[in-house]
Amino acid sequence: MDAILQIPHYGISFLLLLTILVFVHEFGHYWVARRNGVRIEVFSIGFGPEMFGWNDRSGTRWKFSLLPLGGYVKMFGDAGAASNPAEGIDRMSAEEKAVAFHHKRLGQRAAIVAAGPVANFLFAIVVLAGLFMTQGQPYTPAEIGTVRPDSAAAEAGLRPGDRITAVDGTRIDRFEQVQLIVRLNQGTPLSVDVLRDGRTLNVKVTPRVVELQDRIGGTQRVGQLGVGRSGVEFARHDPFTAVVAGVEETWTLTVGTLTAVGQMITGSRTTEELGGPLRIAQMSGEATRSGVAGFLWFAAILSINLGLINLFPIPVLDGGHLLFYAAEAVRGKPLGERAQEYGFRIGLALVLTLMLFSTWNDLVQLRVFSFLRGLVT
């Protein structure tokens, strides 16, 4: 139960990481709202009772609240953190309507809501670009260094020295691209183009499903060819190419995450890999141990996931608000209050269910139940 003994370290790392990412997300909402003339009443890191805070010159209350799992920006005209319209919003004066979120044009409201997830993606790009300029980007040529006997690669006839140029029609430049594609394809046949002795050959290979154990004793099911790279290289970039590489890496990680989610929905991937707050805390602690670069890399990945999750079309999330705005654009008027209320209730139930399920997964993977049973037996 080393993971349980490391709770203080994990907790501090988790709170630091979560504070950064929540601030980035909420500042996206805040900045675009201010640019559109919306008065901001509260900028909160966390939910629940306030622990400490201060007021700025524009009257915004900046505060840290007791429950650290998230945050919110309360705009003028909001009833609460969920950004529902306050009562009496239609009876506002002209001056009040000018600074109220719910009286802004549809496009302005959509931009303010979308700004949070966009800020998370931009943060990831900036962090990755910074790492690629200073630490370098993992850029290993897609040349096979080793082939494990009795592996899928050996069965397909792949050899050391083969250079992979394409997988299922996707151009391959780095060994890391091959790893990502193969890990996401569990038991799915792949068409692999390899360069061997100056000739291009097409090889059909089916990654085998294997279970890998992580540092906390949990398991992950991934696809594996059974090949090793010829070496590890890091390429440092100038500022421009670093930003381009940051955008490309963010896109790759986004597509990989969506692919994994789709596989969980269809049942081709186990939901045991779905982690919640406890798993994130553990991973943030491990990332901190690997140094600043490891912590920043994990922050970028988590920021991408936070942006994606908030874009899911679930009421109470940013994507749910954007879904309502899309319906408003089609209908020419907002959805009725009852429809929105039911939508938010359903969305809240879905989010809470997902949190409970992922936390249960965390407790199982961290072997908390086994530890507790050991204390009483």
Please render the helix and strand layout as text:
Layout (H helix, E strand, L loop, with lengths): L1 H4 L1 H29 L4 E16 L5 E15 L18 H5 L7 H29 L2 E2 L5 E4 L4 H5 L6 E5 L2 E2 L3 H10 L5 E7 L2 E7 L2 E6 L5 E6 L2 E3 L4 E2 L3 H28 L10 H13 L2 H20 L6 H14 L5 H29 L2 H9 L1
Antiparallel strand pairs: 1-2, 3-12, 4-11, 5-6, 5-7, 7-8, 9-10
Helix pairs in contact: 2-4, 2-8, 4-7, 4-9, 4-10, 7-9, 8-9
Please explain how this structure is put together.
With 377 residues, the chain is α+β, with helices and mostly antiparallel strands. Helices cover 52% and strands 20% of the residues. It contains twelve helices and twelve strands. Helix 2 (7-35) packs across helix 8 (277-289), helix 4 (106-134) runs antiparallel to helix 9 and helix 8 (277-289) runs antiparallel to helix 9. The longest helix is centred in the first third of the chain and has 29 residues, at 7-35. The protein is elongated and about 80 Å long.
